[in-house]
Automatic annotation (TrEMBL):
Catalytic reaction list: a ubiquinone + NADH + 5 H(+)(in) = a ubiquinol + NAD(+) + 4 H(+)(out)
Organism: Chimaera fulva (southern chimaera)
MF terms (GO), sorted A to Z: NADH dehydrogenase (ubiquinone) activity
UniProt function note: Core subunit of the mitochondrial membrane respiratory chain NADH dehydrogenase (Complex I) which catalyzes electron transfer from NADH through the respiratory chain, using ubiquinone as an electron acceptor. Essential for the catalytic activity and assembly of complex I.
Broad EC category: translocase
PANTHER family: NADH UBIQUINONE OXIDOREDUCTASE SUBUNIT ND6, NADH-UBIQUINONE OXIDOREDUCTASE CHAIN 6
Name under which the protein is recorded: NADH-ubiquinone oxidoreductase chain 6
């Protein structure tokens, strides 16, 4: 199980590098979907299956629609592909940065700390992810409303930036 989680973590990092290194939004969409799917798989492997399913459905239902709409507004006639030199240099630099950071920070980690929610709780009547979901809606309602407000503000900022050639912050001079 540890090797499977390690493989999923590597796929997650590869998806994030794919999003960060490619300036064309068409090719970065694959990295976003891969990162979301692998991140939810990581949560499910740790015993948080309900929350990972909710996160995956909300992400694909909401944020990916905004991303596709933004990509449609910024259509490029000749987008850069994965084999362009600028994209390959960005991939190499991001991968090198992640490798250096992993080598620096991984010294104190133990393989036994990768336990799931159900394995660390012992014999319990309630699952850990269901308790967390109920606490999120009862005690964390202020942070939940704040997160919704930030997402709405982000939507308006992105749509204002890519509004068109005649108005908005990004235009051809």
């Amino acid at each position: 199980m540890i090797y499977f989680v390690f493989l999923m973590l590597m796929c997650f990092i590869m998806g994030l590098v794919a999003v960060a290194s490619n300036p064309a939004p068409y090719f970065a969409a694959f990295g976003l979907v891969m990162s979301a799917a692998v991140g939810c798989g990581l949560l499910a492997s740790h015993g948080v299956s309900f929350l990972s399913l909710v996160l995956f459905l909300i992400y694909l239902g909401g944020m990916l629609v905004v991303f596709v709409y933004s990509a449609a507004l910024t259509a490029e006639p000749h987008p850069e592909s994965w084999l362009d030199w600028s994209v390959l240099i960005n991939v190499f630099m991001y991968a090198l940065g992640v490798s250096v950071a992993a080598g620096y920070f991984c010294g104190g980690w133990s393989m036994m700390s990768w336990l799931g929610v159900d394995e660390s709780n012992g014999l319990s009547l309630w699952r850990g992810d269901l308790i967390g979901t109920s606490l999120m809606y009862s005690s964390g309602v202020v942070l939940l409303i704040l997160a919704g407000w930030v997402l709405l503000l982000t939507l308006f900022v992105v749509l204002e930036l890519i509004r068109g050639l005649s108005r908005g912050a990004l235009r051809v001079v």
